[in-house]
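Email to the structure team, subject: Signal peptide peptidase SppA model.

Hi all, the expression group asked for a predicted structure before they design truncation constructs. Nothing fancy, just the tokens so they can compare against earlier work. One-line instruction: predict Signal peptide peptidase SppA, return tokens.
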Amino acid sequence: MANTADAIIDRRRLRRKLTFWRILALLIVALALILFYFSVAGSDAFSSRSSPHIAKVRIEGTIFENEELLKRLKDVTDSNAVRGVILSVDSPGGTTAGGEAIYEAVRKLAVKKPVVAQVGTLAASAGYMIASASDHIVARQSSIVGSIGVLFQYPDISQLLTKLGVKVETIKSSPLKAEPNFFNPASDEAKEMIHRMIIDSYDWFVGLVQERRKFTHEQALALADGSVFTGRQAIANKLIDELGGEDTAIAWLKTKGVNDKLPVVEWKPVEKSSLGLFFSNSATKMLARYLGLPEESAGMLNQLTGDRMFLDGLVSVWHVDGKPAGAQ
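Reply from the structure team: attached below.
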């Protein structure tokens, strides 16, 4: 019996050792594959970017002051291999400051190389602001363009706190300090202060559109009431220059001396955060499953819980929930 027990113990120890080495081997193989992938992807990207080409930069989703995107645009600007640039814009807008930063980066790029914006589904608010920084705007007939305007949003949870029996006391140096806040309805003076701020940014936005689209001030104002337009309407209103897709954008670059036979190389974001993105997407999918939603809803949850819900400061974004979004 003792020999049998010892044999069983030995077999268990052997199994544990084998399991450990198998897991270690799998981890080593996985790490090697990851390193190989990134080395090949990196070398391919470097090779394609080092020879003459047309650079394609995607500007998608909610607009923020994206440092990585700003650096990428600067790298495109400084690259001797880039002959022309296609901005692929598909955005509902975002923060006004983020749109301004990207707008300025595109204008610096356009000084050195011809830049054409090719609108996908949507270029609204700050998204249209960025598209207008290009030398030429191309959109589909059914693309959505426009929503020129600025808004400021803040929650008022004072009634909820009252129902919960919570009262927030505030002592401050002056009436408009830290206004508006979550805990009290905004005063008329606070609303007037916010309105002045919105109108100032709105005038600045309208001025950009007026300058870039060669409008009179009256023409720009007439189109800057927050309305959105289809591509067909936008070209009639001179908010865009041409209807079409990427081939139309390349044809325009050809008129600026860019060889239309050059390859179009997409300058993608740096992939160093791919694992973090994987875990982030996995967490969102788990949340979707927990809520009883299909995993395909994860992208929508990312939009609702991440990009669009927490936009600080002045915002130039097109809302599609059918609810009043704020001042235009």
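Residues 122 and 144 are 5 Å apart (CA to CA). The first helix runs from residue 2 to 50. Ping us if the truncation boundaries need rechecking.
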